[in-house]
């Protein structure tokens, strides 16, 4: 092995965990496991069963450089360059929001609607506004083999990432992208519209954890002065791009249920369902248009 002998897998894991604990990270053991497992391509189980395996000096060096990046607040999944979402491995890029487990609730919530529409009409067509990595749309397509989807985003780089993720997960034939703001590049109707739009008030961005404000793209976070700009834009035009009986689902901030609901009601929609996240905060709203 070039550059001399590195540590064992369990030795490296221990080293990372200790450094993370000294730096007061919230959950050093879990973060160390994700980082070392990701860098060495080992599952949580393999980290244990192959604990006495030697790590190459090169891999150990990469891991130590990654420790420094994490201690500089870069999130573990950004360092690894990918994250799993709804069982799909997704590549991240600087232009994309890192998909979070809370957003899987939007997929969970919309799936029954997609399946019901599928049973009624066959091919369900889905629009994911501000698609980023493609996470929401690709998860729905993966779970609904008849569905097709469009991911729209203002960032060409994000859309390139989303197309790569579709390819990687065998979904490229049913997924395409549209570059533009909100409905600007959209010229067709959909049965389901979903979005996890930027919803943080501009003035709050500077107070966010460095992991978020320094590494997630600002355009994916900043919802304008009151955090509601995206919902205004979506509510204003969504009905024109929805088939009759179509459904619309959005992720929201913890304190936005009432304001977002009234914005959509003002545009002729009615609330069908509101779902909370694992922390019992309002997280997903589902709307239907009054025909």
TrEMBL record:
Q: At which positions is S-adenosyl-L-methionine bound?
A: 130-134, 153, 182, 196
Q: Where does this protein hold substrate?
A: 196-199
Q: Recorded E.C. number(s)?
A: 2.1.1.297
- Show where the Methyltransferase small domain sits: 117-203
**Organism superkingdom:** Bacteria
Listed under GO biological process in this entry are: methylation
- Taking every annotated instance into account, which residue ranges of this chain make up the domain Release factor glutamine methyltransferase N-terminal? 12-81
Q: Which reaction does it catalyse?
A: L-glutaminyl-[peptide chain release factor] + S-adenosyl-L-methionine = N(5)-methyl-L-glutaminyl-[peptide chain release factor] + S-adenosyl-L-homocysteine + H(+)
Coiled-coil spans are none
Drop me one GO molecular function for this one: peptide chain release factor N(5)-glutamine methyltransferase activity
Q: Give the enzyme class.
A: transferase
As for family, the record states:
Belongs to the protein N5-glutamine methyltransferase family. PrmC subfamily.
Describe its function: Methylates the class 1 translation termination release factors RF1/PrfA and RF2/PrfB on the glutamine residue of the universally conserved GGQ motif.
UniProt-recorded name of the protein:
Release factor glutamine methyltransferase
Q: What is the lineage of its organism?
A: Bacteria, Pseudomonadati, Pseudomonadota, Alphaproteobacteria, Hyphomicrobiales
């Amino acid at each position: 092995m070039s550059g001399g002998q590195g540590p064992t897998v369990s030795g490296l894991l221990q080293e990372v965990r200790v450094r993370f604990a000294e730096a007061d990270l919230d959950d050093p053991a879990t973060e160390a496991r994700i980082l070392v497992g990701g860098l060495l391509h080992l599952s949580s189980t393999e980290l244990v069963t192959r604990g006495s395996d030697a790590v190459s000096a090169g891999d150990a060096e990469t891991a130590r450089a990654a420790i420094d990046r994490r201690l500089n607040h870069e999130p573990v999944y950004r360092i690894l360059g990918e994250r799993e979402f709804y069982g799909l491995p997704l590549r991240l890029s600087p232009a994309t929001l890192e998909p979070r487990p809370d957003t899987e609730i939007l997929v969970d919530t919309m799936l029954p609607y997609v399946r019901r529409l599928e049973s009624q009409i066959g091919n369900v067509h889905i629009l994911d506004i501000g698609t980023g990595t493609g996470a929401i749309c690709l998860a729905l397509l993966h779970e609904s083999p008849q569905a097709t989807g469009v991911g729209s985003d203002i960032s060409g780089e994000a859309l390139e990432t989303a197309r790569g993720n579709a390819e990687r997960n065998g979904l490229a034939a049913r997924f395409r992208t549209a570059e533009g703001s909100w409905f600007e590049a959209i010229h067709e109707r959909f049965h389901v519209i979903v979005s996890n739009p930027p919803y943080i008030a501009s003035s709050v961005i500077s107070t966010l954890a460095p992991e978020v404000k320094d590494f997630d793209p600002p355009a994916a976070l900043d919802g304008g002065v009151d955090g509601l700009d995206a919902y205004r834009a979506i509510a204003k035009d969504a009905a024109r791009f929805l088939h009759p009986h179509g459904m619309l689902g959005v992720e929201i901030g913890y304190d936005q249920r009432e304001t977002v609901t009234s914005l959509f009601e003002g545009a002729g929609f009615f609330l069908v369902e509101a779902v909370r996240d694992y922390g019992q905060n309002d997280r997903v709203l589902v709307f239907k248009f009054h025909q």
